UniProtKB/TrEMBL annotation:
Keywords: Signal. InterPro entries: Transferrin-like_dom. Residues 1-16 form the signal peptide. This is Transferrin. Transmembrane segments: none annotated. PROSITE patterns: TRANSFERRIN_LIKE_4. PANTHER family: TRANSFERRIN. Residues 19-287 form the Transferrin-like domain. Pfam families: Transferrin. It comes from Lasius niger (Black garden ant). One of its GO terms (biological process) is iron ion transport. GO terms for cellular component: early endosome; extracellular space; plasma membrane; recycling endosome.
Length: 287
């Protein structure tokens, strides 16, 4: 019996197909790609422009598997609902127990919420209170949607005539929060970015370096800077990743989580209220 199993296994190995892994060029170097195919490897590597091309290659059968984040997988599903399937979730090796790659939370000083108001009214207490934001940079997990989620949720920008979409967004922020530190590029066009920074300096007023619109502490993509901004009482709310709150503020009773429905929870809470929860990336394969 055992021998038969061995023979079947050996036949399996001898017949093993070569699997083609596709990866966007900005996620894998040529060397790393080549290294995958060395020796006895059953995997070859195909570098593609982006995850959209990877989805196309999978659907065509020109590649066998690839790594997709949640947004990329949702997009691929719109075009190829039957051709591509997620087969494995990729969790960080030190965070196997965590259900999400990250969660976004809002943290406020505990005394902000001592005034007795209904939860629905509580978000309004942030008006003119200052916002401590981690900032915009390309080298991070948080995309524009995630970075702007909190500020748009507490204060939906209303269209104003004669201003561009981006200026409308910035002006609404200034009108609601009063002041902020919101580092990084507000617009991909650097001349527009400079113009907006000159016109709305209030949104850099809570920064350590107001002229550069930046925190001194750039650790964790600005999240520590934003938490320092809150801890120094520059702003009444910081919108940051839950894991950095655990790391930086720990369970400091001076601060609380502010929930999307206006409720509050202590930092000791095991299940804090997140504004957004990002699922882990997956390996998706050709069907
Ligand atoms: C918009 O700009 C035009 C041209 O500059 C001006 O005539 C008009 O009054 C402006 N409208 C508002 C609402 O500011
Ligand atoms: C909590 O944070 C405040 C403000 O940063 C700080 O002064 C205080 O020492 C912290 N408390 C604890 C227990 O870490």
């Amino acid at each position: 019996m055992r021998n038969i199993v061995w023979i079947i296994l050996l036949l399996g190995v001898a017949r093993a197909q070569e699997y083609k892994f596709c990866a966007p060029v900005d996620t894998i170097s040529n060397d790393a790609c080549n290294a995958l195919q060395r020796g006895e490897s059953k995997v070859s590597c195909l570098r593609v422009a982006d995850s959209a091309e990877c989805a196309i290659r999978l659907a065509q059968g020109a590649a066998d598997f690839g790594v997709f984040n949640a947004e990329e997988l949702l997009l691929a599903y719109q075009f190829y609902p039957l051709d591509i399937l997620p087969i494995l979730q990729l969790r960080h090796k030190d965070r196997q127990e965590e259900e999400f790659e990250f969660q976004t939370v809002a943290v406020v000083p505990a005394d902000l919420t001592q005034k007795v108001v209904s939860p629905g009214e509580r978000l309004k207490l942030l008006k003119d209170g200052g916002l401590c934001h981690p900032g915009f940079s390309k080298s991070q997990w948080w995309n524009d949607y995630i970075l702007k989620y909190f500020e748009k949720a507490v204060n939906r920008p209303h269209c104003q005539e004669n201003v561009t979409v981006i200026e409308n967004e910035i002006r609404s922020l200034r009108d609601f929060f009063g002041k902020a530190c919101r580092p990084g590029e507000w617009s991909a066009d650097s001349s527009i970015d400079e113009e907006l920074k000159n016109k709305y300096p209030e949104l850099c007023a809570l920064c350590d370096n107001q002229a550069a619109c930046s925190y001194n502490n750039k650790e964790k993509h600005g999240h520590f800077g934003a938490l320092e901004c809150l801890a120094r009482r520059n702003g009444k709310v910081a919108y940051v990743a839950l894991s950095y709150v655990r790391e930086y503020l720990k369970t400091n009773a001076t601060f609380q989580f502010l929930c999307p429905n206006g409720n509050i929870l202590p930092l000791t809470s095991e299940t804090p209220c997140a504004w957004l929860k990002q699922p882990w990336s997956v390996i998706a394969a050709r069907k």
